[in-house]
Sequence to fold (184 residues):
Amino acid sequence: MKDGTRQDYHRLAPAFEEHAKAELVGNLVNLLGLLKGPTLGYQIDRYQHSLQSATRAYRNGESVDLVVGALLHDVADGFAPENHSEAAATLLAPYVDAQTHWIIKHHGIFQGYYYFHHFDGDRDARERYRTSPYYDACVYFCAEYDQNCFDPRYANMSIEDFMPMLDEVFGRPSQVPGIAPLVT
Fold:
């Protein structure tokens, strides 16, 4: 790359950006699809859990950002099991509002309220974030759109139902400060 010229990068960048934008939603849906399969002791697999989380958020009238965040909150389970919340939040960061980003980034520790104590952990670990303006929203997210979204009888929406929302959110320009399109 160090030998590239301005002309080279002005030719390469638009091709990359066009390709990346055109494939982004499909790539994210493919990543989500990796959660299909074993239930790992739960009543449904992680893919159906994700659909259920987003379906409940949608049916409760949540913002499109939160619905998409709910759909993708565990998308990184397969490749970042130790920090899936942060990885999912990083994927969402350029496109969703600050509250949704914060919720997804911290949902793993907030979700721990329901089970950390069974492993002799601190179920109140989320308390270190008590002063965050998004604390209550994250508690609510985990209560309404995560811990209860393993119900095999719940009628989930399909991934196709979420495609317009995914297109809307990921069709936005980047909201990350300092990140600009490669070519203007």
User: Anything to note?
Assistant: Residues 6-33 form the longest helix (28 residues).
